[in-house]
Amino acid sequence: MMGSYREVGAVMVQILARFDWRVVGMLYHNHDVGKSAGNSPCYFALAAVYGQLEKQGHKSVHKNFDETNGSVNFTQLLLHISESSRIIVLCAAPPKIKEIMLAAEELNMVDSGDYVFFNIELRNSNNATLKPWHSNSDTEAQNNRSRRAYEALLTVSARVPDTEQYRDFSKEVKRIARDEFNYTYDEDPVNPSVAAFHEAVLLYAIALNETLAAGGDVSNGTAITSRMWDRTFVGISGNVSMDKNGDRNADYSLLDMDSVTGVFQVVANYYGVSKQLVDVPGRRIHWAGDRNGPPPDTPTCGFDNSKCPDETTPIYAIVTIVLSSVVVVLIITSAFIYRHYKEEAEIASMTWKVAWSDVVLFNGDRTGRASAGPAGAAKFGSRLSIGRNSILSNLSNEMVGNFASDKQLFIQTANYKGMIVAVKPIPRSKVELNRPLLLELKRMKDVTHDHLVRFIGASVSAPHCCLLTEYCPRGSLEDILENDQIQLDAMFRRSLIHDIVKAMAYIHSSEIRSHGNLKSSNCVVDSRFVLKVTDFGLHSLRLPTDEDDAANDRSSYAYWKRKLWTAPELLRMEHPLPEGTPKGDVYSFAIITHEILVRHGPFYLAGDNDLSPRGKFYITKWATQSLFTCK
């Protein structure tokens, strides 16, 4: 007749929905496990609240304590709950509720206005005139502090009927208690639970009379009970509604402390039949901390401040950042220092250096100079066709022919530590080793690519100054193109061009940056018919000196011929760059591509095949003036 625990949960769902609260904490009394008392009424009440909230998708956290164990550390319990909720539902005896609220006031949970507490009163006193915060045994200062603590508390209790019949019933109960039992009843009107007992007897009497009138037996409990469920009758408190489970559709009140009088008064009523929460006209909730409205159930930045960036960086974070930065700087600096010393050590080790005593020339000559073969040097055998699947097995393995001239030249070869190498003399009597040259020699030694001739090393001991490179026995691209006995199909021509592209792409992306002397005679073919680019880098060692009359003879055929692959913008320079430019390499590549396609040498002019390299040079330098822009 007092209503089920399930109804308490329904009341709390309505109140929380009114203020859009979805995160709730619970703190309640329950007997310790193992005690014969079992679970407390507060446990069952808040279990119903928990179940109703869970159905609505609300989040909740709960902690319990045993109020019969004496002192309870409510401060610690509140700190735990406050980590995940601001709306806290309480259920305990009135003295323990007071202890909880005083602990909350000490934790600044009241004055901040950020927290709201609900007290579930299962066996309520007349809260319309009660001051639960007041105690006659406390000092005025203590009572004032208790009153401040209760500013954050709202109470949910059974509604006290406001009818004339109920007031008359209360007077009769007080008279009987005084006259027949010598007991003074202080409450006016009496507690609703007293009326509930009276209405329970009234309901039983109605059901019994109906059963007897229907011809039933007084001992038939099933028949009597069935007439008590799912019905409405008039009781002391007005119309009483029973649901199909035999539970009363109870009414509840929400009470708040008046800020002036300190008395808890009803601000809203929950009606069990309609399941609605209705405000009392002219009354409103006074929120703690002088708030104008209810606080949010979740802080703006979240309970762990994860939703807001920390504007003030703590000192430990600053120290961590500084130390981390220092460590990163030290690591980077150490890496650079290590790299520098490693590079310096590699430079100092001079792994490229060749001892001339280890070089054995095939002709027995140790001058390091290339020697010319006889005028009637070995000729190719039969007419050959080079294709993707053909093998030039009878090409000379040591000859690099220069078919543009009247005599055939052989490059000097030697045996160096068990391998055949090409020996290219350095056109100077003495080599001055400085750091830039040592660094370039080290980088040349590190170059490894399938389409670049590998640099073996260099001998810098006068008078045997020379460069040692990988030996490609099939000769140069110029030799193959100028040999009419060799036919090239389209597939093999494309393969040659593709090999040059891959080699130059690597050079342009490396520290070498550019070739500067790319031409068909500097493209050689190895024993597997793979084209490789040679004579790149080390320009300070490859360029002839001013004293080299043969190389600087402007009347010689070779002087003008080597300029035919040079880009016009470089030819027009008074002092051309020995290393060239990437764009100049592209021009040289175009000339080589033209050679591969027409097989008549650079700048082939149909009908005028006798034009000298010098004539072609001037055509290149001046006739292309309108086609190229010097930058």
TrEMBL record:
Transmembrane spans: 315-338
Record's catalysed reaction(s): GTP = 3',5'-cyclic GMP + diphosphate
Cell compartments where the protein resides: Membrane
Protein name: guanylate cyclase
Membrane association type: Single-pass type I membrane protein
Keywords from the UniProt entry: cGMP biosynthesis, Glycoprotein, GTP-binding, Lyase, Membrane, Nucleotide-binding, Receptor, Signal, Transmembrane, Transmembrane helix
Keyword Nucleotide-binding attributed: yes
Domain Protein kinase positions: 392-631
